[in-house]
Each structure stands twice: as C-alpha cells, then as structure tokens.
Amino acid sequence: MTLQATDTLLNISNLSISFKSDDGWIRAVQDVNLQMAPGETVGLVGESGCGKSVTSLAIMGLLPRTARVEGEISLQGRNLTTLTDKELRRVRGNDVSMIFQEPMTSLNPILRIGDQIAEPLRMHAHLTSRQMSERVKELLAQVGIPNPARVMQEYPHQLSGGMRQRVMIAMAMACKPKLLIADEPTTALDVTVQAQILDLLRKLQEESGMSLLLITHDLGVVAEMCSRVTVMYAGKVVEECPVDDLYYEPEHPYTQGLLGSLPDLDKRERLRPIPGQVPPLWAMPPGCRFAPRCSRAMDICHSTEPQLLDVEPNHRVSCWLHQKGGTVS
Amino acid sequence: MTEALLRVSNLKKYFPIKRGVLRRTVGHVRAVDDVSFEVFPGETLGIVGESGCGKSTTGRTLLRLLEPTSGEVWFKDKNLSQLNKSEMRAMRQHLQIVFQDPYSSLNPRYKVGTILSRPMEVHGLYTPKQRIQRVEMMLERCGLNPSAKDRYPHQFSGGQRQRIGIARALTLNPSVLVLDEPVSALDVSVQSQIINLLEDLQEEFKLTYLFIAHDLSVVHHISDRVAVMYLGQLAELATSDALFSDPLHPYTQALLSAIPHPDPRAKRERILLSGDLPSPANPPTGCPFHTRCAHAMDICRKQKPVWREERPGHFVACHLYGSAVEGGIPR
C-alpha cells in the first residue's frame, strides 16, 4: 500500500541486520520494507529463522550491540536507528511496546504483578503512588483480570498462562502506545485461551486506536486479526498483500506451499508439503533463497535474486515467475 | 466389527501431592480419571484436549511408563496391568512411543546408528549385521540418508530428528505406536512432511496409531476417530468427521469454535469460554465442565454424567443427552 507520509506510523525501509560470527558477518535480515498506518493490524509471517523476530527487536532497539543494523526504521517520521540509548528509552514502552511468546520468562518471577505493571508508568508518567496504584488496577481490569486488587499483590507463578499473557498486555498498554508489537502472543497458549487473548487484543485496539504488528507462524491467527500481511522467508520479504489475497490468490510459491501444508478442516486431502528445509543463514543459495525448494524454479532463480515488485495494486511479490527474465505461467 | 487391538478400561492415574517435612500425602492430582476406550487394528485414534487434560499421561500410563493407579489395559488377549516388569518390557516390542521434543528424546552422546539399534539389542532381536541393515532400511524409509547412522543427533534439524525418533520406534516392528505430540515442535512446512510420512508408514507397516495432540486441525486430518479429554476425563468420542461436523459436548463445541481458520472470509461463531481450567487436584463435583458450561443445569453440579452412546459410534458424557433432560439439544 502506498501511504501518504502523514499516514504512516511506522516506516521500515531497506532494513538489513547482520550478526558477527567466527566466519564474518551473517545477514539475518535483508532489505526489509514495511509500512504501517495508524490503527492498522499487519501480520508478519514466516517459519523459525526467517527473521521476523529479529526485525521486531530492531524496531524496539533491543538487538545486542554487536548486531549491525542498516537501513531506516522511522516512527512518526523519527528515525529510531540513530537515537541514543536515552532517547530510545523514552520511546520504548511509551510509543512502542512489545509482548512476547512466553509470558512466564518475560515476567520477573520475584516481583509482584502490581510492581511490574507500574514500572513503565514510573519511567514515562508522572503519577503519585496512589494514582499509580489506581492506574494499575484500571489496567488489570481493562485486560479482563478478575479481582485486580488481589492479583496486584500476587507473583507470576500464581497465575495461569493466559492470565500471565494478560498481565504482559496490561504492562504493554500502560503508557497507551501507538504501536504494539506482539511476537507469537498466543503460541504457548491453548486454543480456547488463544481465542480469549485475540479477542482482548482486538478490543484494546478498538478502544485505543493503536496499531498492531502481529508476528506469528499461524495463518489462521493472521486471517482473523490482520488487514495486511508480510511473508518472510530466510531473512527476506517474499510477498506482501491484503490478507484476503494471501488465502485466495497467493502468488509466491513459498506462500502457496505454506497453505498447502496446512490440514484443511473441511476436507481431508493428503497434505502438500514444501520439500526440503530452510537453508542455514551461513549457506544461503545465490539467487532466490527459495529456489532449492521450489517446484517451479527456473535457471534464473538459481543465479539472480528477484526484486519485490507490484503484481497488482497493494500486492507485491519477490519471484521471477512474475518478473521480466522469467516466464509468467 | 473387528476385535479391538487395545482395550483401556477405567484407567486412572492419580499423582500424590506431598507437603511438609514428613512428605505426607495431602491430596491427589487426578491426571487421568476413569478413562475407557478401544483402539482397533489399523486405525488412528486421536486424543485431543488442552494442556493438563491428561492426554499425555493417558498415553504413558497405558504403556506403563507410568504405573496406573487402577484400571486395566488389554493388548490383544494380554492384560498389560497384570504383567511383571520383565514381561512388560518384552511386551513393549509391540507398543512403541514417539515423543514431542526431538531434542530431548535422543541421547546427544550416541550416534544415530547406536540409538536406533539399541532397542533391538535390548530385545535380543536379529544379529548385529542384520541390525545395521535394519537401521539403514528404517532411516531410508523415514526419509533420511542411511549414512545418518554415523552422525550425532545435534547434526540434524528438528524435522530430521523427529524422523529419527520415528525410525527408532519402528525398528522393533511394533503394531501400536503412541505418538505424543509428534509434530507440535515443528514448523508448518516440516510438520506436513512428517504427517505424510506417518500416513505412509501406517499403510506400509499396518500400524495402529494413538495420536495425542492439542492441534485440532492436525488431529482431524490424521485420525479415523477422535476422543476429547477434559480434566482427566473423556468428554466425547466419535469418528473424526462426525466429531468435527457435529460435536455434541458443549466443551467440544467451544474447542472447535476456537480454531482460527486461515480463510479470512470464513464465518466464525465463537463460543468464548469464561474463566480458567479448574485444578485437577480439586476438580468440580458432577460434570467437570459445569463451571464453564453455558448449558449447565442443576444435575450437572451434582451428578457425574454417564458415558453413553448417543448415536452409533458417537459417545458423549453430558447430561444434555439421554433421558435426563426434556427439550432440545443446543446447537
């Protein structure tokens, strides 16, 4: 989607992230572009190691110092990659916040729930301690925790997985962020609890008008929550489209392969898996990174990398089948 | 109908809760509470349920990897619960298990060849030369290069390790395979490879599967019949198609309605369950689901529903069915 500059909340352009290894720099993410409008929900989809989580950590400025970040990440026109630590701290938890997959490991086990939720408020808001505890109670109630006054005094281990994820969400919502990044927020949860949490995220988004970047491997979750989706494979964006197109007209063979791998609830047919496995980061094939697993790969796919180009308005694909040099079938 | 290969009747597994310096037992976690079902030769019986419902404990208890508190498991004409340790060990040749985590279920210090031939050594099967041949054959059958036998588990990806785990289970030529969340730790594209492999192996070796998983669409895909567990008890059991198209138990209905569908235009009528799962240490009286059930009646709080065959082959434990209630069945 081409967005007006004023309409863009988040604009990632040509983002590349490398990590140093014994054999030199290894590029985990290459040339990622992503735009988000205020209030929008965008899905970032891909399998383990595709670079979706690293991308989100880069937005938060949470990558280790040894990582090399190239390109630009701007939030409301402000480039986050050039900010100092102090400036970044003012953005983190305030304008952008994040929730993670494992609510147990991301909460501090020896701090009471109330104190943990108050932490972002202490950093970013100027409240008296009474106001603070009122606000914490309010937040807990907002995320659907029964009896907030009691839960405030409890420790993470006393809560169930779903309740812990609610606490994480309360913490993330404390300073009314403009962008919430949710990295596999429901992967560790049971399906009925997942439904509750997705419902909650939708409700909070409606109330606050924040944008939601949902990182997941679950195409069902994407279909339910997102308006647009970006598919990543081996560190690169392979397809970007409205969520309807993803299911009905996926253009990239990888996206098609992902859908073919899913068991269909309506009919039981043999699954059509993608053969082989994701290449390791240090042994990326030249040309298209998906070519070794692609049933429609041509000569050019093995030698030259395709560009991410429009195939129709709002739908971009990085595949030689849709570009000059390859034949469109 | 053919005779059942595996018959589980009134299986219970209670774990004691111990407190204090004297480690006195103060209560029990009822992980599996009076579960009965049959598995027929060549079929795949899926067991679904959410974490803590007792599905994995059921799988392990029927292989006696955990000793059952009470109940019986019959394999053909043998009562497994009556066997002594060495008889049971010999019996495991016919009943094998594949675990969820392909990282922790393979010993990192042994080469794959050793890992795969160990079960045959333990059971005194084949000559050493035949074992090696069999290891190579099984690796190949499971989609790996036979040279994999000279490498260590850490040299393989998650999907490949799961293939190794399956190959190990098959070296003994078992008739029943308990698959405990075999694809949950894998990425979607690899998951589908393993599912297809399991289907092929089942056909080739005439295997009977007990497929335990929390992913409902995977269970629907692979199973002939599916059992739904809640809080240590069976809620419903039917053919996969009947269960997914026409679930009877309110819990099954809620569970199925919560599956996210990859089609954004799919119609959703979600039944949101309120509250958390009650503790299996202190399960509700009567029907275990009554605390979260939208249709709960007085009788549900007092009396445990009986396991009844509501339709041919379609079993359910719920007071909404049968003579207990007048009036309609909720849809």
At a glance:
The complex is a heterodimer of chains A (329) and B (331). Chain A is an alpha/beta fold.
Describe the structure.
The complex is a heterodimer of chains A (329) and B (331). By secondary structure, chain A is α/β, with parallel strands linked by helices. Chain A has 2 domains: 199 residues, Rossmann fold, CATH 3.40.50; 71 residues, no CATH class. Helices cover 32% and strands 23% of the residues of chain A. Chain A contains 11 helices and 12 strands. In chain A, strands 6-7-8-3-9-10-12-11 form an 8-stranded mixed β-sheet, sandwiched between helices. Chain A has a 4-stranded antiparallel β-sheet with strand order 2-1-4-5. In chain A, helix 7 links the parallel strand 7 and strand 8. The N terminus of chain A is likely disordered. By secondary structure, chain B is an alpha/beta fold. Chain B has 10 helices and 12 strands. In chain B, strands 6-7-8-3-9-10-12-11 form an 8-stranded mixed β-sheet, with helices on both faces. A 4-stranded antiparallel β-sheet of chain B has the order 2-1-4-5. In chain B, helix 3 packs across helix 4, helix 3 packs parallel to helix 5 and helix 4 packs across helix 5. The two termini of chain B are 31 Å apart. The mean pLDDT of chain B is 92.
